[in-house]
Specification:
There is one protein chain. The chain is an all-beta fold. The chain folds into two domains: 1-103 and 115-144, 7 Propeller (Methylamine Dehydrogenase, Chain H), CATH 2.130.10; 311-620, Methylamine Dehydrogenase, Chain H (7 Propeller). It has one helix and 55 strands. The chain has a four-stranded antiparallel beta sheet, with no helix packed on it. Strands 5-6-7-8 form a four-stranded antiparallel beta sheet, with no helix packed on it. The protein starts with 16 loop residues before the first strand and ends in an 8-residue tail after the last helix. Pfam families: WD40 (PF00400). InterPro entries: WD40/YVTN_repeat-like_dom_sf, WD40_repeat_CS, WD40_repeat_dom_sf, WD40_rpt. It comes from Micromonospora endophytica.
Length: 628
């Protein structure tokens, strides 16, 4: 398994912060990240957290949990398919106690039993497993979800609650599973937490609702917190309130009677994780350090975060490559290497991450995590300019996909909405039928566009008349086109689908031939196409850090059962691919590197050159400020 590597250590994380957890005393805060590290902060003085320790996994770390009986033990859950137990003492180097290593998929969360001897782990394959934490022996399976199991929490009586993307909530005791209670929801449930008393279970639902449940899973109250997914929950010390992190970018504080007490907002928040202790709220971040908020006022006590410039989106105008980053920066560079190309140009478009990009004329459009689409003139992006930009109204959810179709900008949201925007004003002009999940990718095709969604489908058509082309076995991350006839899609089912399409009349399309290409042993995140429709080359980037290649030969369907060739390796998962020409692709990784991959005169595909986003930003010295 390739190991995540962001280079030298710094005084914070090198990628977004995925999880936060206070130790039982409240003096130590653990934070984990996409960069594969767990950082330990002394937060005795919350205004000045001191970095006192660093732990490492081989892949991103999803969450952590402190031992309730021995506050020096910390359990961590990682996408390297392990859970680990560490001993953390003041003024001592952390020690690895045990590794729970027989998981068959990413470990999403861990929780300790009250005696501090056993760990419950939940993973992407839906499994709920019980382990001896010190000997790392698997005790047994406690159950399973039919989709990703996302979170686990255990109360003082030993009741284990698990929630998952299948909408199932399950509560039971590890020593008596016959008394387990279950409750099903039509939407994914991704967060759960017991009250300190253990008498209430809070669950965070994908439809923006938080339910407070009794141990038998009867409902005390349902609270509509947000129009987008509620992702994380934590009770305050006295159980009088619940802190909720939602994908509207806010942290909501709710009384247990359902009343909204207050909410906090910062474009740098990544509220997939929240934790509370002693009047302080910790929140995950897209920047380099977790946020520490004063519960009573919402004041951010930490400040001073450094941006992380992981590239999430690519777009092309002529010979210019446009890069959208976690930091909210947009970079414009000419990767051709021409002497007159000039230095990179950088502008801070937003404080929240840029998730998607599209180009129309001399404007670049950026879809943000905060749920806006922002337009900026490309010829006014420079290190010195303070050019004004245009922003849409909030679209109700983050915007992971954009395309330009028929003179309009089409945005796809986390809520599954397809929304058309006027390219000049970014006013909403129309909307279409929603997908049943987040719209992960859009691409212009024919007289309409393609869409790829977490509802496992790839669809084509206009905004109001859409046709499903095919389904993947799991969510679809990306879609690409070549020559107006070839379409490829990348899925979490570890496959790439590539097909030749032909018009079938009345705006419909017919799949003439399709190949299923077996990918790596992890989710395929992005896909691109080189060559010609008659002889396409498929390139796909994976969470296994690899860039994989297939040469498609139409008429030989058995070739679809052949693994792709590993073309290149990166130091992190790959995030996005954009075509600079039919024979040249830009491929980006969350380690900050961007590779130019092209076809030589002899037909051989190779990596021609590499760029580093941090270097591109540093060449400008300082990001341009934007007049809002």
């Amino acid at each position: 398994m390739r190991v995540v590597d962001f280079g030298r250590d710094v005084t914070g994380h090198r990628a977004p912060v995925t999880g936060v957890a206070f130790d039982p005393t409240g003096r130590l805060l653990a934070s984990c990240s996409y960069d594969g590290s767990v950082l330990l902060w002394d937060v005795t003085t919350a205004q000045n957290p001191e970095l006192v320790g660093r732990l490492r996994h081989r892949r991103l770390v999803n969450s952590m949990c402190w031992n309730p009986a021995d506050g020096s033990l910390l359990a961590t859950a990682s996408a390297d398919k392990t859970a680990a137990v560490w001993r953390v003492r003041a003024h001592e180097d952390p020690q690895l106690v045990s590794v729970l290593a027989r998981h068959t998929d990413d470990v999403n969360a861990v929780a300790w039993t009250p005696d501090g001897e056993r760990l419950v782990c939940v993973s992407e394959d839906g499994r709920v497993s019980l382990w001896n934490a010190r000997s790392a022996a698997l005790i047994g399976e406690l159950g399973a979800h039919t989709a990703h199991c996302m979170a686990v929490a255990i109360n003082g009586d030993g009741l284990i609650a698990t929630v998952g993307e299948d909408g199932l909530v399950s509560v039971g005791h590890p020593d008596d599973r016959s008394a387990a209670a279950t409750r099903s929801y039509p939407s994914s449930v991704e967060g759960c937490a017991w009250s300190r008393s253990g008498k209430l279970l809070a669950i965070a639902r994908d439809d923006g609702v938080v339910d407070l449940l009794h141990p038998d899973l009867s409902v005390q109250i349902s609270i509509q917190v947000s129009s987008v997914a509620a992702r994380s929950v934590a009770f305050t010390d006295d159980d009088s309130a619940v802190v909720v992190g939602a994908y509207d970018g806010r942290v909501h504080v709710l009384g247990v009677d359902g009343e909204l007490v207050r909410w906090f907002q910062d474009a740098r928040f990544w509220p997939r994780s929240v934790a509370t202790h002693g009047g302080i709220v910790a929140v995950g971040s897209f920047w380099s350090r977790p946020h520490l908020l004063e519960l009573a006022t919402g004041r951010d006590l930490t400040g001073g975060h450094e941006p992380t410039h992981g590239p999430n989106a690519l777009a092309v105008r002529g010979e210019e490559l446009i890069i959208g980053c976690d930091s909210g920066a947009v970079l414009v560079t000419d990767p051709s290497g021409r002497a007159d190309a000039g230095p990179p140009r950088v502008v801070q478009v937003a404080e929240s991450p840029i998730l998607s990009l599209a180009v129309h004329g001399d404007l670049v459009y950026a879809g943000t995590y905060s749920g806006h689409v922002v337009a900026h003139r490309l010829d006014q992006i420079s290190g010195e300019s303070t050019a004004a930009q245009v922003s849409s109204v909030p679209l109700g959810a983050p915007v992971p996909s954009l395309t330009c179709v028929d003179g309009r900008i089409v945005a796809g949201t986390y809520n599954g909405d397809l929304i058309a925007l006027d390219p000049a004003t970014l006013a909403i002009s129309d909307s279409g039928p929603a997908h049943g999940g987040s719209v992960k990718a859009l691409a212009a095709f024919g007289d309409g566009f393609l869409s790829a969604s977490t509802d496992r489908t790839v669809a084509v058509g206009t905004l109001t008349d859409r046709q499903v082309l095919w389904d993947h076995g799991n969510l679809v991350n990306d879609v690409a086109t070549l020559g107006g006839r070839v379409v490829a899609s990348a899925g979490r089912d570890h496959t790439v689908r590539v097909a030749r399409l032909a018009p079938a009349g009345d705006g419909r399309w017919q799949v003439v031939e399709q190949h299923t290409l077996l990918g790596p042993d992890e989710s395929v995140k992005c896909v691109g196409l080189l060559g010609t429709p008659e002889a396409p080359v498929v390139l796909a980037g994976s969470y296994d850090f690899g860039l994989h290649l297939w040469q498609v030969r139409w008429g030989r369907t058995a070739d679809g059962l052949v693994n792709g060739r590993l073309l290149s390796e990166f130091r992190q998962g790959l995030s996005c691919i954009a075509a600079l020409s039919p024979d040249l692709l830009a491929v980006a990784s969350w380690d900050g590197r961007i590779a130019l991959v092209g076809t030589d005169h002899d037909g051989r595909v190779r990596v021609r050159s590499l760029m580093d986003v941090e270097d591109l930003v540093s060449q400008r010295g300082q990001l341009a400020e934007v007049t809002r």
